[in-house]
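hey so i finally got around to running the thing on that chain from the lab meeting. sorry it took forever, my laptop kept dying and i had to restart like 3 times. anyway pasting the input first so we r on the same page abt which one it is
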Amino acid sequence: MGSMPGLRERKKHETRYTLMVTALRLFSERGYDHVTCEDIAEAANVSPRTFFRYFDTKADVVMGFAPIRMEAFQDGLRAPGRTVVELVLEHLEGLVDEWNGDPEVFQTQADLADRNSAVAAVRVRVFDRYRETVVTALHAEGRLESAFEVELLAAYLVDAFLASVRVWRDSGARADLKAMFTEAVSRAVAQFDYA
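ok and heres what got predicted. didnt touch it at all, straight out
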């Protein structure tokens, strides 16, 4: 096997993406509470069984690509010759590029999470996994002395990202998200003996 994802993998990614985009469209049109998992499956031309192979609940489909991104993030953190902080910055900036490329999807996800506790819980879980992943990577990297500093820096990185995103959204996506986030990260790193 090469490093290119195989045909089956690509097909699975396409199905996952189709389900997510279809769900977001239906939620926008009918309201989250008026759409069932079966409705989403039908509109995406797959069986309900296929839907449940990818997602446990309709809240999970909103952030449908999060597990794929998480895998890519975990793989990326193993890249040699770069610091964990550099790799986190790079991954989250890549996320921003995706949102800028597909602002409607991101906006719909964010609105649903803001208005709906089940979706909000999924978003919290996603960013908790990010934080835990960063903690593990920082421990392995061994640049910080204490476990407390590792936890603190990981929390700071993820929260700095979310804070930047909130300011960016409130500005109507006009603020420079990458610049804000880069500044937040350099401020964070300056407080730690991360060198």
